[in-house]
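Workshop exercise sheet. Pairs work together: one partner reads the sequence aloud, the other fills in the structure field after running the prediction. Swap roles for the next sheet.
Pair: D.N. / O.F.
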Amino acid sequence: MNHLLRKVVGGVVACLSLGACAKQGAGNPYFQSAAPDSSVTVSNDDSGLGGGESGITMLPPIENGDATFVVPLTNDEGGSAGSDAGAPNSLVFVPATATVTIDGTGPQTASFSLQADFGNGPVMVTAQYVEFDRPDLASVTDTEPVVATAPAMASATPYGGSGVVHAIYHGVEAKATLNVQVHLSQYATGLTGASPGVAMLGGTNLPADPAPSISPILYPYDGTVWPLGLTSPLTMWNGPSATDVYRLHYAEKYYAVDYYTTLAQLPAQARLDQTTWDRLTNSNDSVYGGTDPITFTLSRWDSTAKMAYASATETWTVAPESLRGSIYYWTASKTTNVGQIVKFNPGPGATPVPLNTTGACAGCHAVNAQGTVLVADIDDTAVAPSVAPYDNWSGTRAWLSFDITQATTPLIYKSNKFGADPALTPDGKYLVFGGPTTAAGSMYLSLGDPTTGDVVANSGLDSITLDPAYSNLEMPAFSPDGTKLALIESQWAGSINQRDNVLPSMPEAIVYLAFDETKPSFTPTLNKIVDTTSPAFSAAPGLAYPSFTPDSSAVAFHAGTASTGCNSSGCDDNALDDGNLFIATLGSGTPVRLAKACDPPDPADLNSSVEPTFNPVVRGGYSWAVFTSMRKWGNQPWPATITNPTMLVNGRRRLWLTAVDTTIGATDPSHPAIYLEGQDFTTPNMRAFYTLNKCIPSPGMTAPAGSPPVGTACVNGFDCCSGFCQAPTCIEPNQLACVGLGGACTQPGDCCNSPYVTCIDMICAVPIAH
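Structure field:
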């Protein structure tokens, strides 16, 4: 069904006094927005003329020299005002606003009558052009009255939201608002609306749940910011009985859903189905510029007491963009002697896919900001031997580079140089790697080409003068703009011949170098961001893994008893580890603890967050950092391989995600963390790099570089560059919907009722002949 109706009056010709004629709606070099000598907004309320915010916008005529060009239309398309009425004095929809509610009973409709006033009172007319700017919500007819139809549950899974019906009549526009509410009730197997307790759970003012420890819920956390595109969260709580009935209520401005379930067994866990979660989050008003929290309420019907209780409530925020993409992480278990680089795509059906299948143990790795190149160390002399002078004490761990734009992740280059902690420039053209060597350009680290292994001898790295009390540079990370390299400046406690850039020793500082890729070279002046003497730290910690924010203005890192999971208790799965996430702007020198990201509800899980890595792109108004945490994931039981399930040990390392405000000041900018489903829950996972999918272009749209081809199937609006999916095809208008007459635009397709209304001088206007 075509939701973008553009009805052109066939055969109507408009002639100007200068003798030039043009068919109405044709593409002409001059444009007129409304009647001449007008600059009036006429609105109507539900009773007719006057009041409200809907109505018409009439702009002054466009002038060319001394002449004013106006289209004197001569056909009112079937209205009752006379065949020569021309443009009306006012044009309004009645009603100005309508609301329909989709509840599963069938399609819902609303009718809007178009009324024009030519000076003798309102009369009904038929629009010449009609377009609804939210085609994902409803379809509209081009009749009188205009009928908007929101789909039935059986025909399509609906979205909720608000859109505007735009009608054009003789160069004048009328608008009406259509609100689509979605109210759903869903039942787990064995339950219906008539099941015991269900009706009671739907009541209001329920008493607080007396069950101990049922509030707060264990996961997700109160205050979470959810991006679009992730897996529907697995809600977990301390349920007292497997025979009770639970209601999971999700409510926002345009969408509400109740999910009723019992528990087949404990622990208590339940999940909203993925399609409904996607529609709920994509219907959030924040997607279209509003502020619309999701209120989540857990209620319980006690099957013994026959009482319904309000058990717990949380409030969540929706970030209005998708984080669909790929995450590359390292899973390393000394207990099982496994080390692999693994890829998974967060979202429905995500599964971990190991990338190195040669049997060699992979180690430290990096992915460039553009998501095209991966570099990883291979801890196997038969596969990738390290050769002097680019060797280290282990005699192995040479780096290899891979093309991750292809599904098979082919090898680009296999080096014979020690990799250690590598870093790639955003475009993947250069690589920083290794440790101190006698080779030119490699006094502390090396700058090289990931496709050839060639080292830049005059990179400026040999000219660096370390600060007093420091002897080494480690853990490099480039800024997303490619102009800076963050480093850990440390004191190596062991033999100078065993220095590398993997295991910093205290004291430590986080510093950065300026970089110019056009040369390519570093300015050899170390700029300190923070060191271990900062009063923000309760004790002198190990600092590690700096990562720049997307705007390259701040660095996140972790501070813990040790810099890495290797410490005095060892490096294996049972070795203790701890840490907290911090962030500091480049010029402040004052680190701010990311408390909301670090602190889950259970006090036993505090001080368990390390290794932050920012996604290089802001999405939905937030920066996003993936980090490693040893905390529990709700009540999900740990695998049997973890012999210390109650302690913060390496074997509990898993990947979590936090939203971070884009403005970094003196207060915590983070938000509660999200467990990234799709990673392997049976292995310790760490050091993640997040690359984002390209959006799917609509037909006729210029495809962004690297995007899927036009016509690629979509499922949700967030799959599409336009923001609209009429499954299986992405459709226009753009993500901001279409622009009404007189509104700001940048290209013709931005305007509602195109091509009759098009974009000239950045304004949506009606074409006229010259």
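Discussion prompt: The first helix runs from residue 198 to 201. What would you look at next?
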